[in-house]
Amino acid sequence: MGFDPTTLRRDDYGFFGPGSPSWKVWTAPTALIGFQRAVVLEHFDPFLTAAVADSRGIYAEPRRRLDNTLAYFLIVAVGDGRTAIQASEHLMRVHASMTGIEPISGKRYAANNPESQLWIHVTGWHSVLKAYEMFGPGLTPEEEDRYWAECGIAAELQTCKRGDVPRSREEVRAYFDRVRSQLCSSERAEQGMHHLLFTPYGNGAGLPFAIGSRLLALASIATLPKWMRTLGDFDRPGIVDAAVKPLARALVWAFTRFGSYGFVKAGRFIAPMTAKLLEQHLKTGEPTLRETITPARARELYSLRAPVGEPAGYPGGDWVARSVQSA
Questions:
Q1: How many structural domains comprise the chain?
Q2: How much is the pLDDT for 204?
């Protein structure tokens, strides 16, 4: 059973609230482009590549896995504090079992490792903003400053070390410069990246998803620097980028011309759970408290983690398992 979208925003406005740049960026049609970009970039971290390759989730059921992951990002951006905290705890619990040996270095990987979680978080938030800037209206300098501050708040739901999270465009650039020497590609990394960009029909993907991944790839590849495209072996002539950019901008404009419901309808074919969440976000009324909440306060009020000494069947876990299917 998937997430019940009617519970998206019961208690409060979540961490950011109406008018926030996070609400703008994460609910725009460009978020699909940015998300594909982000999950491809994750494979440049060899430890994440090992985790993805060993779990085989994106190969066995690509649409469900990717839809659930994007739904989680959207919950954090626009959901209330209770929903976001409990979804993040479920995700951390599932990730806790994802450990093994990374074959290039011979070192142990863990999906909840703070450095890997930081790479996932930064590439996710950076990628959706990049797509919003390239194919959408973009943010003002003031909104961008706030966006990166909100990115830092959202990172509190992961295992990231607070002091490592970049909180400005300059800090994001410094972060990418710092980790570039640690990034690499491999046979398994290329397999994962190409599978996400050009998902084959079958194995739970379905024809609409397979077609959608290729259409999105036309735009998402255009947002990537040359060295990443070369390293991942999916580079293409610059003339393709030049042709794709105006077409993608026109399609984004068309989807948003009459609000976001066109995006919702199209999204049902690629990411149905995410589309349900977005539709509920657009339709929902005011929450009980018309205010935002901090992750720390939301965790204090709504955490379902088992207290020390509680048995494994602590009842909170059942609610999360029913509410969100993990990526």
A1: 1
A2: 72
